[in-house]
């Protein structure tokens, strides 16, 4: 049997419990941190238990956020998450992994998946 590597690197140790679906839509994050802030970004993928985002500013691990997936000016889906990891990218953006505090429903996942195939879905307000 091969020896398992022990590491804190999230890419080696995948903790996902449910299948991830590519989404690619615009989001707005509302942070409860003081002072209250609103961050624009993109939702890269989602599962019933979490999401992966790209944002323009670093977000503190452990921070709780309300993620609004948007189509034009309409909010399609809200999910409350907690930041599990954040990695800076070479383009100045940050990729952020979040765990859902309440699992996304099948309907919410279906709405998000439809945004990946609808070219007008990623237009933001």
Folded structure, characterized:
With 125 residues, the protein is mostly beta strands. Strands 1-2-3-6-5-4 form a six-stranded antiparallel beta barrel. The protein has one helix and six strands; from the N terminus they run E-E-E-E-E-E-H. The chain has a domain at 21-106: predicted glycosyltransferase like domains (Thrombin, subunit H), CATH 2.40.10.220. A hairpin with a 5-residue loop joins strand 1 (21-31) and strand 2 (37-47). It is globular. It has one helix at residues 106-117; strands at 21-31, 37-47, 50-55, 64-71, 74-88, 94-100. Helices cover 10% and strands 46% of the residues.
Give descriptors for this structure.
1 helix; single chain; mainly beta; Thrombin, subunit H; 125 residues; 6-stranded antiparallel barrel
Concise summary:
This protein is mainly beta and 125 residues long.
In helices, the fraction of residues equals: under 10%
Instruction: Kindly state the number of beta strands.
Output: 6
* Main beta sheet strand tally, sense and closure: 6 strands, antiparallel, barrel
Spatial strand sequence of the major β-sheet: 1-2-3-6-5-4
Instruction: Round the mean pLDDT to the nearest integer and report it.
Output: 78
The DSSP helix count reads: 1
CATH homologous group name of the domain at 21-106: predicted glycosyltransferase like domains
Indicate the CATH topology of the domain at 21-106.
Answer: Thrombin, subunit H
CATH architecture title of the domain at 21-106: Beta Barrel
Order of helices and strands: EEEEEEH
Label the structural class: mainly beta
What's the level 1 CATH class of the domain at 21-106? Mainly Beta
Strand content: over 45%
Rg from alpha-carbon coordinates: 15 Å
Overall, the morphology is: globular
Query: How far apart, in Å, are the first and last alpha carbons?
Result: 53 Å
Model regions low in confidence, pLDDT < 50 over at least 5 residues: 1-14, 121-125
